[in-house]
Amino acid sequence: HVCAQLARAQRARGFVWVSSVGANKNSKNFYLKVKGELESSIMSMPQLQHAAAVRPSLLLGPRNEYRRAEQWAIRLAKLISVCFVGPLAKYKPVHASAVATQMIRLQHP
Question: Do residues 94 and 103 touch, judged by C-beta distance below 8 A?
C-alpha cells in the first residue's frame, strides 16, 4: 500500500503488484483477506488509472533461502499440475520470470 501511495505521489498513472491466487477481502483466511483488502485499497486510489494485481499461485525459480516445506510443495505441485485444468488452472505453479513479464505488459496497456 505504501508503494502504491509513493507511486501516486510521483504522479505515476499505473501500479502493478503481486497479490495471491484466492485473494478476497471477505475471506476467512487471514492471508487471503489481507491480500484482498490491499487490492481493494489500491484499486480505489483515484490517481492510479492503470492499477493491476497479478495473482500467481506457487512461484517457481531460484531463491535466496531454502524452505523445506516449500520445496516439497513445489515438487508435489509440479507432479499434479497436469490435473489443474479448467477452473483449477489458476493453481498451477508459475515461474517468477513469467509473472514479471506479465507485470511489465500490464504496466503498458
Answer: no
State residue 103 phi and psi, 5-degree precision: -65, -40
Question: What DSSP line would sit under 23-42, residue for residue?
Answer: --TT-SSHHHHHHHHHHHHH
E-assigned strand segments in 25-86: 50-54, 59-60
> What CA–CA distance (Å, rounded) separates 31 from 25?
10
- Output the nine-digit C-alpha cell for 100: 514479471
For the segment 26-82, what is each residue's pLDDT rounded down to a tens digit? 999 999 999 999 999 999 888 888 899 999 998 998 888 888 988 898 889 889 989
- C-alpha–C-alpha distance, residues 94 and 20, integer Å: 12
pTM of the entire structure? 0.80
